[in-house]
C-alpha cells in the first residue's frame, strides 16, 4: 500500500513538472517576436525612405502592414505571458508598476477568448488591406478572406458564450 502511494506521488510530481516542457516553446515565441519586430522596422524604414514616391494607397497599405505586425506582436505577448502564467508558473509581479491588469483575470478560457478576439482584429486588418488593394486581387481570394473572418467571428462568439455560461455556474 505504501509503495503504491509512493509511486503515485512520484508519478503526480512528474506529471505536474511536465508543464515546464512548454518553456522552450515560449522562449521560441519570444525569439520569433524579435524577428517580427525586425520586420516591422524594415517595413517602417522602407516607408520612410520611399515616402516621396509612395502613393496615398501605398502609404495606407504600409501603415496597415505595421498595424498588422503590431497586432500579431500583441497576440504573441498575450500567448507568452498569459500562457506561461496560466500553465507553467505564477509570475511574481504583485508590486511591479507595469503589471498588466488583464493578468489577474486570466484563465485558460479567458485567454482563448482574448486570443480569438486578437485573431479577429488581425483578420479585419487583412480584409481592409484586401479591400484597399481590391483591383490587384482575385475575387476568390477576397471571398476566402471574408469566409475566414466570418468563421473567426462565429468561433469567438461561441467561445465567449461558452466562457460566460461556465463562469456563471461558478
Describe the structure.
This protein is mainly alpha-helical and 170 residues long. 78% of the residues lie in helices and 0% in strands. It has one domain. Helix 2 runs antiparallel to helix 3 and helix 4 packs antiparallel against helix 5. The relative contact order is 0.09.
Topology, element by element:
Blueprint (H helix, E strand, L loop, with lengths): L1 H16 L5 H27 L6 H33 L19 H25 L6 H31 L1
Helix pairs in contact: 2-3, 3-4, 4-5
Features:
170 residues
In short:
The protein has about 170 residues and is an all-alpha fold. It has helices spanning about 1-15, 25-50, 55-90, 110-130, 140-170.
Helical proportion?
over 70%
Can you write the helix and strand succession as a string? HHHHH
Q: Per DSSP, what share of the residues sits in E-state strands of 2 or more residues?
A: under 5%
Q: Based on helices, strands and strand pairing, what is the structural class?
A: mainly alpha
How many separate domains?
Answer: 1
